[in-house]
């Protein structure tokens, strides 16, 4: 199988229709990703994995499904992110039939048994995020649309801020419990970003995870 960020056959120019060959190629990629992602998430157990950890696992010699990707470039990361989440939402539908829930949140991906400590609802067809990722045509967004979407995401616009997401975000920033005010969150966020800076031995991926956590908490405190 070709690695996931290899261009699809006859990559379409803007404004031209998507061919059947392109859709078939994407479906094949998604099939492989779905199998591999389920294996990795089951191995991780209830603690689950972050999206970045799952991507790294799928890049490993065991799978070799994703080529190296520049995480700081939204237009390079988007095709990888989109097709992975397309596969995850398909897997979520299949697991629901077996009384299992695939939790898909900004900070954690994990498989839980429905009714055994899981408060997550089964997939809802009207979920706009779910509908977005299940539409393979969204794979072909323009660079302009991708950058705009990422800006809105980092601003917290698309985050639902469920109690589970908020608690996980607090833990990513190093809190045992959710702070009582947003100023405390901002101070901790700045300190953690400085510690994770590449000039100090950190990784861009770590800063992105901190950004996601900060966005969840920002959205939470804005709604209060």
UniProtKB/TrEMBL annotation:
Instruction: Please name the InterPro entries in this protein's record.
Output: DnaJ-related_N, DnaJ_domain, J_dom_sf
J domain boundaries: 168-224
| Name of one Pfam family that matches | DNAJ_related
Does the keyword field hold Chaperone? Answer: yes
Query: Does the record's keyword annotation contain Chaperone?
Result: yes
Q: Which UniProt keywords apply?
A: Chaperone
Q: What is this protein called?
A: Molecular chaperone DnaJ
Q: Which organism is it from?
A: Marinobacter vinifirmus
């Amino acid at each position: 199988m070709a690695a996931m960020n290899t261009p699809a056959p006859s990559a379409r120019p803007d404004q031209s229709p998507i061919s059947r060959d392109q859709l078939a190629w994407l479906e094949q990629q998604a099939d492989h990703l779905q199998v591999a992602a389920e294996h990795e998430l089951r191995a991780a157990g209830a603690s689950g994995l972050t999206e970045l950890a799952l991507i790294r696992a799928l890049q490993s010699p065991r799978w070799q499904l994703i080529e190296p990707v520049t995480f700081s470039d939204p237009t390079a990361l988007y095709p990888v992110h989109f097709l992975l989440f397309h596969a995850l939402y398909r897997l979520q539908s299949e697991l629901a039939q077996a009384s299992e829930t695939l939790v898909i949140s900004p900070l954690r991906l994990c498989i839980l048994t429905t009714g055994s400590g899981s408060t997550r609802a089964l997939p809802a067809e009207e979920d706009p995020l779910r509908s977005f990722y299940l539409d393979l045509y969204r794979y072909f967004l323009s660079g302009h649309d991708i950058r705009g979407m990422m800006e809105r995401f980092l601003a917290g616009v698309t985050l639902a801020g469920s109690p589970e997401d908020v608690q996980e975000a607090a833990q990513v920033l190093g809190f045992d419990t959710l702070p009582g005010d947003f100023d405390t969150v901002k101070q901790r966020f700045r300190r953690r970003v400085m510690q994770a800076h590449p000039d100090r031995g950190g990784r861009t991926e770590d800063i992105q995870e901190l950004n996601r956590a900060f966005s969840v908490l920002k959205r939470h405190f804005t709604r209060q």
